[in-house]
Each structure stands twice: as structure tokens, then as C-alpha cells.
Amino acid sequence: MSHTAHIPSHRKPRQRASKSALRAGVAGGVLSTIAVAGAAGPAQAEPVTQTIEMPTITAGLSTAVAASAQATQQIALDLETQAHEEAAAESAAKKAKKAKAEAVRKAEAEKKAEAAAKARAEAEAEAQERAERASRTAERTTLSAPSSSSSGNSASASAPSSAPSSSSTATGSAAAIVAFAKAQVGDAYVSGGTGPNAWDCSGLVQAAYRSVGIDLPRVSQSQSTAGTQVSLDNLQPGDILYWGGAGSAYHVAIYVGGGQFVGAQNSSTGTVQRSMDYDRPSGAVRVL
């Protein structure tokens, strides 16, 4: 083999070595590029992750806006409710004021009507008392007038005496009855009244006798026959005086001595103590 021919075969391995080196360099560059790209890949992914989180911020803002809108709506509802309540309160106050004024007006009208009725009742009672007194006076005058066949002495004996000759000093049960009757002077007269602060005539007499343990009938007619009939000239304290006939009396009172009596007269005068000359009774009955 010649020297020249040996040279090419000697160079060929160099060419292969050069190519292998080149290939190795290229391969290393590619691998380096891939490595750099791989290292750069995660760094570029971070902005994408941050961009994905933006909807979360938007969602929170929407929630806040919704809450604010709901609060505003609630305030509006509260204001509307308050306005309705204030209007209702004002309306109720007006109605209450009107009702109060109407009640006051009715009360005043009723008071006036009651006063007028009371005045009429008192006037009627006074007129009735006067008429009864006049009737009793006329009746006594007729009964006491002497007949044409009577003598002067008999006429004189039948005339009523204005000053009873009996004693005016009460003792025992009679004193208690008189004291009870006098204690009621000033009380009101009420038809059917039996005390303790309002009486009718027979209710007062019954209560006075009950204070000493004696039960009398309730009405004047029966009380006028409850004991022994006595003359008006021979009265004793505690005797029952009556007006009208015995058994048909329409009024009774208690003789308290000194020519005076205590009786529940009428709604105008109430319970009074008066002289027998004021309204002379028709008769008397003694229970004690």
C-alpha cells in the first residue's frame, strides 16, 4: 500500500469524528434549548393562574353590591312601615279626640237632663205636700166643727190642742227611739228607703223601733194600727203619729216631745224635725 493511498483512509475517521462532534454539539444545543424552554415554561404559567383568579374578585364585588341593594330596600321598607304607623297613630288620635268630645257632650246633656228632672220632681213633691196639707186642714176643720145640736162645752172639747199636755221627757226605750230618729235629721228622702242615709216615712219609723228590738210592719197603714190609739193631747215621746185614717194612713212620723216630731217628709225636705203645728197629724198610736 502506498503512503498516499493511506492518507485518505487516515482522514476519514477524522471526518467522522468531526461530524460526531458536530452532531454532539447540535444535540447538546437542542437539549439545552429544550432545557431552557422547560425551565421557562413554569415561569410563563403564573400570569395565567393570576388571570384565572379575577372571576373570584368579580364574584365578591357582586355579592357586596347585592347586599348593599338589599340593605337599601330594607331601609325603604322600614321608612314606609314607619310612615304607615305614624299615619295610623294620627288617625287613632283624631278618633279618640272626637270620641272624648262626644262623651263630654253627652255627659253634659245627661247632667242637664238629670238636674231638670230633679227640679221637676222637687216642684211636684212640694206641690203635692201643699195640696195634702190643705186637704188635711180642710178635713180637720170639718171634723172639729160643732154640730147645731152640740153645746158650747162639747164644741170646746172637740177642738184640737196645739200644745200636748203630756210629758216631753223620754226614758228607757222611748229615749232610744227618739235619739235614733233625731240622729237621722238631714238624711235624704227616698221612696222605699230603709237607711242608713235615705228613708221614707215608714222606713224611718220601723228602723227607730228596731233599734230597741221591736219589729213593726213596713208600711204606714199597718203602723197606724200597730199599738194602742192615743189622743193627740196625751202624747209621749216615742209615740207614732199618723196622717190619714187609722189603717189607711198615708204618712207616719215619731213624736219626740215638746210638741215636735221627726219624720222623713218628701224629696224636697228630706228627714226633718218640726212642730206639730206645721202639719198636725190625724192621730197617734202607742207601742211601748
Q: What oligomeric assembly is this protein in?
A: single chain
> How large is the share of residues in beta strands?
5-15%
Distance between the termini: 197 Å
How many β-strands, per DSSP?
8
Query: Residue share in helices?
Result: 55-70%
Q: Please identify which CATH superfamily of the domain at 167-286 we are dealing with.
A: endopeptidase domain like (from Nostoc punctiforme)
Q: Enumerate the strands of the largest sheet in spatial order, edge to edge or round the barrel.
A: 3-8-4-5-6-7
State Rg.
64 Å
Describe the structure.
Among the domains are: 50 residues; 120 residues, endopeptidase fold (from Nostoc punctiforme) (Alpha-Beta Complex). 60% of the residues lie in helices and 12% in strands. It has 288 residues and is of the alpha+beta class. Strand 6 and strand 7 form a beta hairpin. The chain has a 6-stranded antiparallel β-sheet, sandwiched between helices. Strands 1-2 form a two-stranded parallel sheet.
Summed up, what is this model?
With 288 residues, this protein is of the alpha+beta class. Helix content is 60%, strand content 12%.
Distinctive features:
alpha+beta; endopeptidase fold (from Nostoc punctiforme); six-stranded antiparallel sheet
Write the layout of secondary structure elements.
Layout: H1 3-52, H2 54-144, H3 152-158, H4 172-183, E1 188-189, E2 198-199, H5 201-210, H6 220-223, E3 228-230, E4 240-243, E5 251-257, E6 260-266, E7 270-275, E8 283-286
Helix pairs in contact: 4-5
